[in-house]
Write a structure and sequence with these properties.
By secondary structure, this protein is an alpha/beta fold. 25% of the residues lie in helices and 27% in strands. Strands 1-2-3-4-5-6-7 form a seven-stranded mixed β-sheet, with helices on one face. Strands 8-9-10-11 form a four-stranded mixed β-sheet, with helices on one face.
């Protein structure tokens, strides 16, 4: 369930969840930092097998959400690891006041993971902003919904037509069309895009669709060209 994707970086796929009537696959990432502590990105549904696999890697110390719709499973992770610090992306703490967040993510990495994980925020949208991360040891960019590359065979009928119209399937997938249109101040998003490309990532981890073990910079350059 928890598989090594790159050195010190592990992935686990979870169940599909409904979003606007469309079944979305879920995926999380776990980075084991130099001190042995675990950094959890976009946690999926938790069960005993996954919890045991995580515990075998090390102590959970930080749990982050990339945007304000990746919050469904945060409470169960916080309950299972009460000493872990929860970090909210812009807008989520206000939207979910019942979740006890430790802090809100900014454009600069927290001191706890600075030097191993970089981050930047894609700002300028009136609907939702997203925090992108870069795992330095494995040269992996980690994005939530800004890049989606769903399996074309996973959707059929009207749903499949809609997903293709939105440009969310296959190797040339991007962000949902309606979300792209919400970025009214694209200069701020372009600044984040420039930073992500400057990382020169080799690998790409995304929440929805196919990840990539090579060519990540070129994939991101194409997927984020709409900015």
């Amino acid at each position: 369930m928890l598989e090594e994707f790159a050195p010190s970086l592990y992935l686990a796929d979870g169940p599909t969840v409904p979003f606007l009537g469309i079944p979305y696959p879920t995926r999380m990432a776990v980075a084991r930092l130099a001190d042995g502590g675990l950094w959890i990105w976009s946690p999926i549904a938790l069960d005993s097998s996954l919890a045991q696999a995580v515990d075998r890697l090390g102590p959970v110390r930080w749990i982050v959400s990339p945007n304000k719709i990746h919050h469904i499973f945060l409470p169960e992770w916080a309950e299972r690891w009460p000493n872990a610090r929860l970090y909210a992306p812009p807008g989520l703490a206000k939207r979910k006041p019942e979740v006890d967040f430790s802090a809100e993510l900014g454009d600069e990495p927290e001191p706890a993971w600075a030097g191993e994980i970089d981050q930047t925020i894609f700002r300028g949208s009136f609907a939702m902003e997203e925090v992108a991360f870069f795992h330095r040891p494995s040269r992996t960019a980690i994005l939530g919904d800004l890049v989606q590359r769903h399996d074309p065979a996973a959707f059929s009928g009207f749903t499949g037509w809609l997903m293709r119209l939105d440009g969310l399937v296959g190797e040339h997938g991007s962000a949902p069309r309606e979300w792209r249109l919400s970025f009214l101040r694209r200069s701020r998003a372009r600044a984040a895009r420039a930073e992500v490309l400057a990382w020169q990532p080799q690998r790409l981890v995304i929440a929805h669709g196919a990840c990539a073990s090579s060519g990540a910079t070129q994939i991101l350059e194409r997927a984020l060209a709409w900015m």
